Amino acid sequence: MNQKEMNNFAAKLLANYLVYAPIKKAKEVIIEKINLAGQIDWTGAMPINTFKRVLLPPREVMFNVEGQEYKERLTSIRETILFGVNILDLQAITLLDHVFEKDVYYQKRRQDIFTVGLTGGIENDFRKYRVFHQAYEENVLEHVMFDVFIEKQKNGNFILFSGSEKGRTLLESCNIVEYENIEFAGLVPEKGVDNKIVQNRLAVENSEKHNLWKELAQTCLACGKCSIVCPTCFCFDEQDEATLEGVEKARRWSSCFYSDFSKTAGGKKDLDALAKKLYFWYTHKFVRVPEELSYYGCVSCMRCYKVCPVGINVARNLQALSSKESRK
Amino acid sequence: MLREPQHDICFDKLIISMKNKLRIGIISLTSCEGCCCAVLDWPTEFLSLKEKVDIVNFHLFEESEHSSDERFDAVFIEGSPLTKENIKAVRQLRKNAKIIIAFGSCAHIGGVYHLKQYQDKNKIFNSIYHGQEGIENFDVQSLSALIKVNFVLPGCPISAKEFFQFIYQLAIGKSPSVFNNPVCYECQIRGYECLLQKGEVCLGPMTGGGCEAVCLKSKQGCWGCRGLIDDAEVGNLMKKLRDKYSDKEIVKYLEVFGVKEIIN
User: Fold this and answer.
1) A179: distance to nearest CA of chain B, Å?
2) A40-44, A114-118, A287-291: least confidently modelled range
3) Whether residues B162 and B198 fall in one domain
4) Across the interface, do B52 and A244 touch by the CB < 8 Å criterion?
5) B54 inside 8 A of chain A by CB
6) pLDDT tens for residues B4-35?
7) Which domain does B231 fall in, by range?
8) For the domain that residue B166 is a member of, what is the CATH number?
9) Each residue of A85-99: pLDDT tens digit?
10) A217 Cβ partners below 8 Å, 6+ apart?
11) Which residues of chain A make contact with B232, given a CB cutoff of 8 A?
């Protein structure tokens, strides 16, 4: 399939669906709702923001209580395509899909969201993603969830893959019959969990007394920008909000860097020092998620480093934790 | 002199004691009246408040005279108690109201004209009034320096959204919630450019959000009008700013809304 045919495919999707895709704006690539197929950025560059807000809105109302009446707010959304999702962001979405597997609000919305992955010739250009902790294998697509995947080849042409029934229906509704089927083979590859996951877990686990946390606590501003921009940070706060009619239960994105995150009734906080918050953030990503799902809690997109006002670098910190000399 | 009023434990008891339709006053002291205007920025919500509460004293809305022994369930006080009349009125309001809410930056942490306190106030006075007589040169103080304040709705001006949310919560007898995420939370969600990364001064990381990062939307750094969040990393932010700015320059930003005093 050449670029022209690919643009036709995108245009067909645009006619029937709400489409979010990476576009070039000023010097950056940013994910936005698009109107024209020509807007799409095909370079495979890492966008500065994520698709997280489509799957998990920054704030959503779950239900209302009016008088004695309880009303679910499971409103349907318009069918939406996440177009041009790079492999790391697909992994992040795969993680969200697992974490929110039993969450009705997430799943209701997820039904109507299609993921169309994209890579600019994965193997060669993969270094561009600055992957710092993944051993990239050719069969990566078998262990990530997607509906359609587009591989851009060196000659500029495209190959299509389908990864689900939803994806096959989507392709065929656009009169595309030339595609390869990929069967999802579970999160964990046959040869076992990615060794990098194991290494990072060993580095972070029980590192509570490591000097790194004290050092980072001397610079970190606890602004929480890293959590907001992170494609895998999924913690949320729930709150009751009064309205003119009654009360609504809403949830919004949260961050373990904020004071209220670990606050319990009576005002006690488990994370009462910045060093603890930092350690908590790393433990969740590199210890607890791998423990529960044998999967990446961090997809190494480096967005947290890019938005950090004081330049805290997750890759460098993992190195520091795993180097033997620094371990105490 | 300036201090942040703490969320009051007695608050819940006060709310429970408010069974009937609430009587609410919105009072202006010395101020620009911007917070009162901000309430009227949401006219539909304001008019429909009458279903929930009685707004019995709000001078932007009605002109009737009020006696000084009028009772309230809650009073929102905007501005700073500067003149003798202000101070007298505030003390009277404290006696007459169950809940006092510091309404906006002036009542909360002293407001913009608190700048005067950092200079020679007589010199400033003379340069403006040229030694005219009969004008008093008051010390600027926040509300909590004078009376017990039960709650704070911060900001310059306040957020109308938070104001209505607060009243709705009072009306159903729920203890109001405090938004304790920094400005950076709302700024990053909205995808605004980070001014700290650009090397400009921004107090966003230590300042309470709820303002929807409205200043950052216009690429104006945060100067902290909403006061500090809990666990604010003030020291680290100052360290970051000192990379590029002298203490003298940084202090200028900290003085605008009186943040200088609450971080010390």
Assistant:
1) 36
2) A40-44
3) no
4) yes
5) no
6) 455 555 566 666 566 678 899 999 998 999 99
7) 183-263
8) 3.40.50.700
9) 988 899 999 999 999
10) A273, A274, A275, A278
11) 222
